Amino acid sequence: MPKVSSAPRVLSVGEVAKRSGVAVSTIHYYEDKGLIKSARSNGNQRRYGRGVLRRIAIIRIAKRAGIPLKTIKAHLDKLPDKAISQEDWQHISQAWHDMLNQRITSLLQLRDELGGCIGCGCLSLADCPLRNPDDVLAAEGPGARILIHQAQDDPEPSGKQDSPNR
Ligand code: FES
User: Fold this and answer.
1) Structural domains present in the chain
2) Mean pLDDT, rounded, for 72-87
3) 117 lines ligand 1 (CB under 6 A)
4) pLDDT at residue 132, as a whole number
């Protein structure tokens, strides 16, 4: 004879807190941010499907990895409301693994650049790699490089000049 589970199909916020190890206030916060959903009981109390426990587990793992809630939500939003499957988690964890690798690479680069600032203190826009890290056009020379490129690609028609009153 098959066993009939006595576990409740829906959980109160207190039960979710107890089973997930997360404070009630945090559960409310996750819900406010749209990371988890609840329904209302006849007495207007929050009730959560059992799948919320896996969602909270994933949120906690992501938080430990420093993944912003906005990114977590973007991934969770792609999933159906049912419990998150093993396959779903494999896709998410692979994406976050790649994201963390990129972040680690970026942090290692930042650490190395920061090494050049120790004992310097110039904070020079021209010389300090941390002040202007994305200035890839600086190698081309001084001036507004993007405007110079645009002017070369789309020169003003000859004989037509802007009126000073326009
Ligand atoms: S503060 Fe001088 S190089 Fe960064």
Assistant:
1) 10-115 (1.10.1660.10), 123-155 (no CATH)
2) 86
3) yes
4) 73
